[in-house]
Structures are given as C-alpha cells and as structure tokens.
Design goal:
By secondary structure, the protein is an alpha/beta fold. Helices cover about 45% and strands about 25% of the residues. Helix 3 packs across helix 4. The protein has one domain: YqgF/RNase H-like domain (Nucleotidyltransferase, domain 5, 2-Layer Sandwich), CATH 3.30.420.140. A 5-stranded mixed beta sheet has the order 3-2-1-4-5, with helices on both faces.
C-alpha cells in the first residue's frame, strides 16, 4: 500500500507518493485548484483510484515557535473534508516547518529555471513532508 503526501496551499497543492513498498518517495504532481477544494478533492479521488493508498499525510503549517498559524486552521478544515470523503483512508498530519525553504534550496542547487520553480515547489515540499512521515514510521 502506498502513502500520499500533500502540501496544501491556497492556489496550488503539491502531491507526493511512495512506491508500493513504502520505501521511496517521489513527486507526483501539482494541482492548481484556485482555492476550490471541490476541484482538489475530485483529483485526489482519481489518484486514490489509480493507486492503492492507505494513508494520506497532510503538511501542517506550524509557526517556528510551535504555535498553529492562521493557515493551520484552514488546513484543518481541509483535513476534515478529507476524513469525510475518504473515510477508509488513514489521514495523518505532519509538521511542515521549513519544507518550502528546503524545496527552494534543492531547486537552487539543481539550478531550476525561475519560471518552473513556482510550478514544482509545492510538489517538492510534499516530497519532504512524506519523507519525514515515512522516516518517522521506520523509526517507530
């Protein structure tokens, strides 16, 4: 069974997925949903039909001091929608602090074109979120 990682944003959502054994993580896509969760939930439904997903891991935007941001409240509402729509799938939250910073560092290291960065930063962030979750589960 695979795990799906989500970096949830207002306009774009990065999606990452594990291999069937849950060992490696790769970016899947960026969904442009323009703050319309119906579009996003429909695309996620298609992805869940294509792959055997048992867990969805959503990045939780937490401030550096450990408090939940305003964006965290919006993300929690989205997680509630996920739990209602995909009630047979385990939904987990993962601290996403500094994942966007790490994604930008990776893209700078790889000399990614400036225009492409905006399209892939969320997917790379989703990879970091899901990798963190997978590593946490391995260490349990």
């Amino acid at each position: 069974m695979r795990k799906l990682g989500i970096d949830y944003g207002e306009a774009r959502v990065g999606i990452a997925i594990t291999d069937a054994l849950g060992i490696t993580v790769q970016g899947l896509e960026t969904i442009h949903h323009q703050n319309n969760d119906k579009i996003l939930l429909h695309r996620l439904e298609e992805i869940l039909k294509m792959y055997e997903i048992d867990t969805i891991v959503v990045g939780m935007p937490i401030n550096m001091d450990g408090t939940k941001s305003e964006r965290a409240q919006i993300t929690q509402k989205f997680i509630h929608k996920l739990k209602c729509k995909f009630n047979t799938v385990k939904i987990e939250e993962m601290d996403e602090r500094l994942t966007t910073v790490a994604a930008h560092k990776t893209m700078n290291f790889l000399d990614v074109n400036k225009r492409k960065k905006r399209d892939i930063v969320d997917t790379i962030s989703a990879v970091y979120i899901l990798e963190t979750y997978v590593n946490k589960m391995k260490n349990k």
